[in-house]
Structure formats: C-alpha cells, structure tokens
C-alpha cells in the first residue's frame, strides 16, 4: 500500500523496529537457553543455542544503532527522535551526541555496551559462562523492552526511537490531527528543521561522558551476575575471585564517567562549580559508592574468609541501585526537584518492574541459600586490615543510604501520600552530612595501609600511625592557612587532614612497592588519587573567590534575581569601557556569532604599577537565546597551573538580530530611531570630527568601482569617503558612499557597531571643496552591555589530576587481579 504522506522515509524505521523486536527476542531466548544449559550441564545444544542467540542480539543492537544514526545523520525529521534531538545546524560531533540526547538513545547505549561485555564473557568466563550469561542476557532482554514502544493493556512498554513524528504527536494530544492524510499529506514541509539539542549539552564532554557513564552502568551487571551465579550453583567461595577484576573495571569506568560529568558541569553550566548535589548527579554516584564498598569487602573475603554475606549483599545491591537510579532519572518522579531528569514517557511502572525483577531475584536466592552461606567462626581481630576495611565499607553504605533517602523524597511522597519537603538548601545539607562520612573514609584509606590481614603488631602500628598522623596534621595546617580553608566549617578541615594523611600513608606504601612489593602499587596509587580529589575539591569549592564584585548597588531586574543570580556577584560592562575587576582590567570588546552560539569577547589585562601590561588574554563566554529556556549561558575559563579563572555572562542587551557592520541605504530610515539626532559636518580631507567617545578623520575621497549588492552602470558616479575612527582607544575604518544615478543622489551608510556609530556621506560641496558627513551616535542607554560573573577556583587541578591518578591505580589493580587468575 502506498504511503499517503509525502516525503517520509519509512524503510529505516521499519528496519530499526524489526531489529528492536529481534534484540528483545534473541536476548530472552539466550537467557532461557543458558538457564537450561545450567540445569543440564551435559547437553551442549542449549549452550550452543544460547551463544547463537546472544550473537544475534549483538547484531540486532548494532542494527538498531545503525538505523537510528542513519535517520539522525540524514535529517529524517519524520521520525520524532530525530526532530526532537537534532537539527541541520549541528556539527557532526553534536550529531553523534544527539544520538544519546534522549531516553531511547541512552537506553541503546546501555544495551550496546552490555552486548559487548556479554561477548567478552563468552570468551573469558569459562566455567562461569552459563550461569553468568543467563543473568546478563536477562538484563539485556529487560533493557531491550525499553526500546520496543508498544501499549499492552493500556500500559506503555518502552519508547521507540523509530516512532514517526505524526504518530508521536497523536499520542501526545487528544485529537488525531494526522487522521486525514488528504489534508496533512505534505506535513513535512512545515517542519524543515529539528528542535536541535539542549544548548547546555552542546559541549565536547557530552560526546564522551554518556558513553563512559553507560559503560560503567552496563559493567555493573557482571559482578551482580557472578554473585547470582555463585548462589545459584552453590559455588559460594569461588565467584568472588573472578568477579574482582570486573568489579574494579566497573568501579573505574563509572567513576571516570561521573568525573567527566563534573567536568562538563564545570565547563558548560553557569552555577559556578562542578557538583551541585542535583538528584540526577546523586543517582549516578549512589551505585558507585556501594560498589566501592563491595570491592573492598570482596578483597577482605578473598584474603581472610570473613564477611562473605556482606560482600555478596553489597554486590547484589549495587546493580539493583543502578536500576533504581535509572528509575529516578527516567520515570518523571524527580520532575519537580531536578532540572536534569527526563520527563515521564509513560514508563513509570515499567521501570519499577525492572527494579523489582532483579531485586526479587537477589533476595529469593539469598533466602533460599541462607542456611548454607559461608560463615566465619570467629570475629575479625580489631587490629586487622579486614576489620577496618569492613568498617570503611559500612560508612560508604551509610553515605549511600543518606543519598538514597534524601534523593528519593519524591518517591516517598508518591508512595505514602506524604508531603515531605526536600532540604531548603540542598548543597549545604549534602555537604555537611557527606563531609562527615568523608572524614572517616579518608582516615581509613590511610591507617589501614599500616595494618596486616588477620593480625598486626599493635605497638608498631600505633607508632607508625601517630607519626604519619602528626605529619599530616602539620602539613594540613599549613595548607589550610595558606589556601584559606580555615574559614570553612571544622568538618571540612578534618577532611583536609584525612586526605593528606591518606596521601602520605599511601605514598609510603607506593615507595615500598617501587622497592619490589609491586602488588601493593595499585591500591596505593588509587588511594593517593582519591586523596588529591578531596584536597582539590575542598580548596577549589571551599575557597573559590568571586572577583566580579558589584559595588554600584545596581540590581539589574526582577527577572535577573528570580534566576537565582546575586546582583552583588555580577558586574555590568559597557562595550569598550574598561573596568577594574580584582587585579584585572577587563573590557567587553565585541561579539562574534557562530550559530547558534553568540560569543562575547572579554579582554583581560594585568597592569603593573608602572603601567606596563604584564599579562593579557581574551575569554569568550557564549550564550544562546533559546525560545524555551531563555538565555542559556556557557562559561569560558582561563587555566593556570594552580588556579582557574571562570567567566560567564548572566544578562545582556547585546543579543539582537542583524547586528554587525552592514550597508544601509536611506530607505532604511526606520533604523535612525536607534540613534540620537544626527549631526552634520562639512569637512575636507585631513579634517577631524570630534564626537562623544572619540574622533574621526576624513583621510581621503575617491571614486569606487563596485558597491555591495548594487551593479554599477557606466553612467553612475560612486564616491567613497574614507574615514579613520578612534573610539574607546580602539581604531576603526568606515567608507560611506555617495552615488549619482540618472541625476538622482543616493547615499549608503556604514555602521561601526563597536563604536555605536552610523555614518552617511550625504552631500558633495564642490565650491567649498568639501563634503557633508552625517553622524549618528547611539544614545548611552542603547550601548551594548553584558552582566558578567567571574570566579577564581584555586588549586582545582588537584581534583582533575587526582582523578587520572585514581584511574591509573585501579588499572594497576585490574592487571594484578587478572594475573592472579591466570596463575590459578
């Protein structure tokens, strides 16, 4: 049957939907087949069918991605996902990131990475392949349902990225506006372009941050699957060792993804920082915290046989919390408390079911196997490493529990009909509570390095611990005094002591590792990185300095204040008018446009007492005038070795259509109302005209051979007045034109927007050997200005470098654990 709607390309959508159904069916078949392969370990046909099914799933997932990318790349806006998340103006790297800009694309990213991980497990899991892959394939089937996009008994099952624009509009509205193809057969002509990406997401970090984050989420199914497999097959003491490398990998990748998100927030968002304790940010760190705790308890069990149940429970809950975090961010439940959460796509109960399935699976197996679980006959020694690692894991769980409880306030209200309000100052609330946990964790990452497994010589431990703690306190005192951290609350000063103590203690271990104890290097390097992250976060966030202090008393506007802007921390800058801002002389010198971004050029100078410029640089914060979101501002940052200078525009009158130097005939007289009353001057070459902000000189008058947008005829006479202009200590040139055609006179104005001028060559006065120049000046009130906020972040590079060092440490630990597996 012919398609009645003109211009639609239906094949890639149909093909993509076919791959979606195939991905779900093949994953489910693979899970079922692996289940029967476990039940009948001598029947190899089930295992063969399971593998083939998972390979088909992998091909199907790649097929989904290929079809969706084809749709976005070719701007097929008949598909709602392409219309909603991309546009023709996006460069190729943002076309790529628009792929996962919406729910459907991010679910695909998750299922893609899980398919890759599944294939790795098929190659490497050996005797664990069947039970582990049964769980991974089940998770793959569950995520595939998120992309199906069908209604069953009135309940939405997933959201398809291949739904057509006309179908999506019909679903969202109450009237099927496309029911009559005869009327709307050519509807695509009314939608020549897509909505584009959210301006805040148009940053290069968003090209790599989501893939990294979702690789972390996908990786967390592996330790969960090993724990389930161990319970299922009663291989209680065996699963932890092969699961440790995958746990480390998931911990490393998800942690890296979280820090990438912090870097994106720092570079793209205008709240002035890298972490705002938004519920969506919390949702990403919740499973990571419990996985870090689980990792340490798994090592305790591997080395001592203690804390089996705790290790198993934490591993199981880490993946359940990944699914719960997905529910929080995708169900619409956080719509009133987070600006980053997805809106409700009608999948609320679908997402709930996903959490419940895996939670029930974990709980049922624990209950069934409860009596058989390994138990330690004696308690850990107080002065043993495993005891304090267990304590550290408990505190990480408590930190996680606090984040879950407070971030889930909307969930509690929905479940119990309550009206609990979230914290009025969430940043302060989270900072204080989480800082308390951080004090304990940083201290534990230090002094556990002086403990041995099972039992430690108490006297030696105390002497070593006290010596390093005193050294850390002395160093921390110096750092606190020099950096200004002393002005913070006492709990943050304790974190500084703990972080430096951790760095020193693990530094000793690293030195020992370099002397031959190589297996200790990974944890030492990772803990040093974590300590540096704490130091950098404390100094940069706790002692950041607003240098754009407004001393004029100007409040700007009610809208400005409603947008949570503090007028005292924002300074107004008129174009080409230098102001002093801290040690910098700052000038807003102009604009440039690279659609859709409008860049504001801000010149910074440092001038010494003799008037010599010792430093000069240009920052270009940008903004978009988004019709839905208003002014969307993105900062620009000057990076120094020991600090960052962070600048963003909060308010402006400079974003107007049609700005820039342009030709204008006097048929555009309406433009004159944007200027003060004109002034006329009769001048000869070499004469000077003075105006409010500077002066100009008529350099020469000469015949011109071409005129922009006008074809000169042989009988035309066109003369240009070459003007040299100096305004606000800057130099410009302009050449207004006077033309005679068929005994009629015309003039063509030239604008110098940076100087606020429009110039016309209005008469030739041959008897006086002069010409008449008409000068238009913008009034003071029409001058372009920006309101800008500038913040100095000291020592923030400790945070970023600490992240890199921590990742290196985890990588070293992964290599060590893989080597141990090969040696078995």
Compact summary:
The protein is of the alpha+beta class. The chain is 49% helix and 18% strand.
Give the helices and strands, then pairings:
Blueprint lengths: L10 H29 L4 H30 L6 H6 L6 H7 L4 H22 L4 H17 L4 E3 L2 E3 L7 H8 L8 H4 L20 H15 L1 H12 L7 H29 L10 H26 L3 H23 L17 H21 L16 H23 L1 H8 L9 H22 L10 H26 L6 H25 L6 H22 L2 E2 L11 H5 L8 E4 L4 E3 L2 E11 L2 E11 L5 E7 L2 E5 L3 E5 L1 E4 L3 E10 L10 E3 L13 E5 L4 E4 L2 E10 L13 E11 L2 E5 L2 E5 L2 E9 L4 E9 L4 E8 L7 E10 L2 H26 L2
Antiparallel strand pairs: 1-2, 3-23, 4-23, 5-6, 6-7, 7-8, 7-9, 9-10, 11-12, 12-23, 13-20, 14-22, 15-16, 16-17, 17-18, 17-19, 19-20, 20-21, 21-22
Helix pairs in contact: 1-2, 1-6, 2-5, 4-9, 5-6, 5-9, 6-10, 9-11, 10-11, 10-13, 11-12, 11-22, 12-13, 12-15, 13-14, 15-17, 17-19, 18-19, 19-20, 20-22
Question: Which spans have pLDDT < 50 for at least 5 consecutive residues?
Answer: 657-667
Indicate the mean pLDDT: 86
Number of strands: 23
Termini separation comes to 63 Å
Secondary structure category: alpha+beta
The DSSP helix count reads 22
Largest sheet: 10 strands, antiparallel
Number of domains: 5
The proportion of strand residues reads 15-25%
Shape: globular
- Fraction of helical residues: 40-55%
What's the gyration radius in Å? Answer: 33 Å
What does this molecule look like?
It is a single chain. This protein has 824 residues and is α+β, with helices and mostly antiparallel strands. The protein has five domains: 1-197; 242-418; 423-543, no CATH class; 558-657 and 785-791, no CATH class; 675-777, Tick-borne Encephalitis virus Glycoprotein, domain 1 (Sandwich), CATH 2.60.98. The strands form four sheets. Strands 13, 14, 15, 16, 17, 18, 19, 20, 21 and 22 form a ten-stranded antiparallel sheet that branches. Strands 5, 6, 7, 8, 9 and 10 form a six-stranded antiparallel sheet that branches. A hairpin with a 4-residue loop joins β21 and β22. The radius of gyration is 33 Å and the shape is globular. The two termini are 63 Å apart. Mean pLDDT is 86; it is low at 657-667.
